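We treat protein structure as text, and this decision shapes the records that our systems exchange. We quote a single record here, exactly as it is kept in our systems:
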Amino acid sequence: MNATTQNSSSISEMLKARKAYLTALLKIVDTQTGKTTTTQKLTITAIKAEMGLIEHKLKKR
């Protein structure tokens, strides 16, 4: 299976869109008041880690 090559600008746009999506998702998960469950904490940690990876990739470009 051959992977299609994308130009640098489309990859950057995709990463920016992914980051915006994760930011919105983080606001939904993180805005609940009261006790946070272990699942919520793990989800928030995973989202923040993914956002950090995206920021790193964007800085490299």
